[in-house]
Structure formats: structure tokens, C-alpha cells
Amino acid sequence: MTDITQIRAAAERGRGHLRRTPLLSSPFLDEIAGRRVLVKAECLQHTGSFKFRGAWSALSALSPEVRARGVIAYSSGNHAQGVALAAKLHGTSAVIVMPKDAPALKIANTRAYGAEVVLYDRAGEDRDAIGQEIATRRGLTLIRPYDEPMVIAGQGTSGLEIAEQAAEAGVTRADVLIPCGGGGLSAGVALALEAVAPGLRVRPCEPQNYDDTARSLRAGERLSNATMATSLCDAIVTPMPGQITFPVQQRLSGPGLVVTEEDVLRAMALAFQRLKIIIEPGGAVGLAAALFHGAEIAGEAVICIASGGNVDPEIFLRALQLPES
Amino acid sequence: MTDITQIRAAAERGRGHLRRTPLLSSPFLDEIAGRRVLVKAECLQHTGSFKFRGAWSALSALSPEVRARGVIAYSSGNHAQGVALAAKLHGTSAVIVMPKDAPALKIANTRAYGAEVVLYDRAGEDRDAIGQEIATRRGLTLIRPYDEPMVIAGQGTSGLEIAEQAAEAGVTRADVLIPCGGGGLSAGVALALEAVAPGLRVRPCEPQNYDDTARSLRAGERLSNATMATSLCDAIVTPMPGQITFPVQQRLSGPGLVVTEEDVLRAMALAFQRLKIIIEPGGAVGLAAALFHGAEIAGEAVICIASGGNVDPEIFLRALQLPES
User: Fold this and answer.
1) Rounded CA separation B189/B180 (Å)
2) Which of A16, A44, A274 comes nearest B276 by C-beta?
3) How does the average pLDDT of chain B come out, rounded?
4) pLDDT in tens, A154-197
5) Residues of chain B positioned with their CB less than 8 A from the CB of A114
6) Residues from chain A contacting residue B316 (CB–CB below 8 Å)
7) Per-residue pLDDT at A99
8) Top-level class of domain B52-142
9) Are A22 and B21 within 8 A, CB to CB?
10) In chain A, domain spans
């Protein structure tokens, strides 16, 4: 299991390579939320999402010999870009298995970072099986998107930064709202905060109809989503909570929060107007919960992670063209 | 005159109040520019532009008695918001003289920060005269947007950060492309860099038809713009270079760079796609020059300041809807 020592080691390996993303705020958002809102802008991380942290951690932890043979990953897009760039910067090759319906921008970027892209059908095929088969046949190391201790350690580095930045802002007790797919970011940040900022508690956030983590936390066991159809929040749609990540979430997380697609689009528009950052739908569920689900949150301040910014312009236009409410 | 001691003092007074904005980059932008491009994201500063630095510096330098009587400023928008928020945070009042045709968002924000807004006609009235008259009548301190040593010192704090962040990125020799209106940011950053990073040289950037600084630098004297009609780049349209700022630019700046409105919109779209930040047109002229005027720049790296992000959605949509080129 990942622990704080591994998270600190991942931060050390990432020094000079990971970007320390800012913790942003706006009095206008505070007013909407009814409390201070601090936004960790992971959309400003290299490749436009926190996933670069986990990818860098995993690649940098491999022995030079194993790394030189190349890596493989499957991803709806952000893990893909993270692994592709981390592989390129380590001078090795990457194969990325991506769903055919992933945002065009993410597929194009993954190729542009030098990776070989293999497309699959999200509805009918099992990406884990495809990934394992190619890995075995070609001698590549499979880097799973969340059920992978070194990836979780890498995501946890964001938690170390949050603890420091929140303390600088005078916040030591607050919920930390985290967009949650497989739970790698939530688990990594929760493990980091447990060790360095125990007054900060992770709460996973999900879009309606894809709230497997919130339901699983209530039920005390891993439950699946009823649908895997395409969601506006594609980046955080996974079949069910991770095998490694879920026990961490059970032990350390507060209740899940669930938001609507309209909440998400409004949060994206407010991030445009007030923070000057681009958040993709899946990356905006935490901010959406902070702004529009305040009754389910306690305390004078709330922290949320804006976990990614890789959104096609057409979707972003939908957010900007919402009527003022 | 402003000197490095005053800039360092402004940074000290701003500790815990000014946001240290990140220096961003993307391999995709490097490829377009043909060299490394480092982007100082001042659009992420409080109030969405670097102007908060100068406003905080000026307000915090006043004696408590003078400050308590209130301040007044004139501005097309970003200085307005900076002074309004800095006044509010210092517990004093602000009157802001703004052009009637300033972006709706900037006028609304200035009022929302608690300031009293007085509108004037950009074509027919002299904002300096209006500001001075109200200041005298009501006993307020006028905080000029650029011809004001404490404001220039505040803007210079961005230069101190650039010097440190560029050195961390391994860049010690480069041009620093800065959106230029009255020249407060260019002058402040140039004075900071002269002292702490002499290998970095400021080059002011302007939109076509509003290139008073570029022409003035060539002519060796302050020249006016032929027109003061509304520009896409409203934030950096001023009648002519500043009285205090221009001699600094003459001594320290390289030649000015001039970009088209289409360059600006394309730079905004690329910042959306590759950096995940919102840049307003006037704030994007430096990035536009870095990306599309590379032949006028030397060196293996270039730094540019994205000076503000306060753009109405309608204008931003124009950038996103540009045909791919």
C-alpha cells in the first residue's frame, strides 16, 4: 500500500518536473458558496491535469532497464497524456489504449506527445484485458490509471502542496472536494493529508448517474455504475471504485457529493469569469459541489481540486453560453 | 524615481497579499514559436490582472491618515479593479473614473469590489482632469495607473518573480515580452530585471494602430496614437507613453513589437488549449508576439507576461471560434 513515505519520495523524484499549481480564490466565489473557497488549479499541471503527477511518479520509479522497454496505459485521456509526456521526458516509448469516443483534443494530444494510440470501444471491450494483452506480447510495463501504488503516491503530491498552501491561507480545518473516477487522486490526497494536515478531510465528488463511489461509501462495498454511456464528465467515468483506492477512501473520506451536469457547466463558467482558468467538466465537479451544494458541507472554508482542463472548445462554449442565473 | 529598493519594499508589503503567479509552458507552444516560451500568468493575480500589484503597493505605502480619507483612480478597468479591491482590503473607500465603453464585466466587478464608479466619455473628456477635480473636491488621494512611482514599484514585483522562476527553468538570457499601455508594467519589470537578472530584457508589445510606445522608442520622443477609438485590446490603449515610464523604457527596453488583432485572438485560443488560462485581448499581445513574430526575436527562449484575463464571454467566443490555421 501507498504511504506518506512513498508520497514524499514521489515529490522528491518530481522536483523540477512537477509544477507546483496555485491555490486560487475569488471573493465572488466565496459569496456564492457562503464560505471561503480555495481552488487547487491542477488544470495548470503539465498536460493539463493532475494525472501527470501519477505518471511521472510511476515512470520515475521504474528501473532504467524496465523503463527502457517502454510502457503502456489505458485512459479516457488525461492519464494517457500524462503517461505519454512522462515517457517522452524519460526517453522511452508509450502505447496508450483510449476509448474511440474520447475528446478529440485528448487523442490528438496523446499522439502529439509521441505515444502510439490504440483505440477501443468503451461499451463493448475491456480496456484492462486489451492493455494486459499488448503489455505481455510486447514486453511493456502496464501503468494502471489508479490501482497502482506509485500512481497513487504521485497524485498524493498534490495533497502535500494543498496542506502547505491552505495553511499559508490560514485554513487548517476544511473538507477537500475531489473529482473522483477510480479514486487515485482522492486516495493519494487523503493519505497525504492524513499525515500532514489531519484537519483536512477528502470528500469524493461525482456527476449524477456516475456516483459509484458515493453509493459504495454508503453501502460499505464496491458498487458499479448502472451505465457506462458517454458523459459530459468523461474524464471521471469509471466502472466502479478501485480495488486499492476504495479501502483508503472508506477509511479516510467523508461522504461523497453528487452534482448535476448543469452545476458543472455553471462552475466552469464561474471559473472562467472569476479565476481565469479552464476546467473540463469532469474536473469541475468539486468546484460545482463547493458552490451549489453548500448545505452538504460544514465549516468556514472549503477546498476543491480543479483536476483537469482538457475540454474541447464546443463543450466550453456550452458553459459560457448558459443564461445568467 | 522607482528603484530596486522600492520594488523590494513593495514585495515585502505585498507578502501574503499578492499572489505569486506561475510561469507556465507547453511543448506545443514551444513548437509554434520555434523556441521555449515561458508565460507569466498574471491573469491569475487577484482581480484577474497584474494591476493589483501596483494598487496594493500604492495603497500600502500611504500613511494610515491619508489612506483613511479614501483614494481615487481612473482606468479602463483593470487598474480600477485593483484599486477597488486594495482599498477594500485596507478598509478604506475608492472612487473609480471609468470610460463608458469599458467591458461590462470590468465595470460590474469594480462596483462589486465596493468602489463608487464615475463614468466618462473616452473620446471627449479628459480622465486625468476629472480625476484631479474629484480628488481635490473630496480630499482623496489620486492613484495614477502608471505615472506613479509606487505603482511602478508594485508592478516590478512581477519582475522579481520572473527572474527567480526563469532561473529555476534554466533561462537567464531572454527577451521578456510585455503588453504595454502606459508602460507601468514594462518599466517596473525592467527596473527589477536590471537589478536581479540583467540577461533578461523587456520588450513592450502593442496592438496595431496603438503602437505609440514602439514608435516613440524608435523616434526617441513620446508620440501619440492617431486614434483613441475602442480597440479589442482596450486594457492597453493609452494616449501616449507615460512621462515617468518612458525614460525607463528608453534606457532599458529593446524595440517594441506590434501584433494584429487576429494574432491576439489566436494567442487567446492557444492559451485556452495549451495553458488552460484565460487571457484578455490586451493581455495576450506578448504571447501573440512570442508565437507569431518569432523572426523579430532572438535567443533560445522567450518569456511573456499574460497580463490580464478580464474578458467578456462574447469576445472570448470569437477567439475560440476562429478557424484552425
Assistant:
1) 12
2) A44
3) 94
4) 999 999 999 999 999 999 999 999 999 999 999 999 999 999 99
5) none
6) 272, 320
7) 86
8) alpha beta
9) yes
10) 4-50+149-320, 52-142
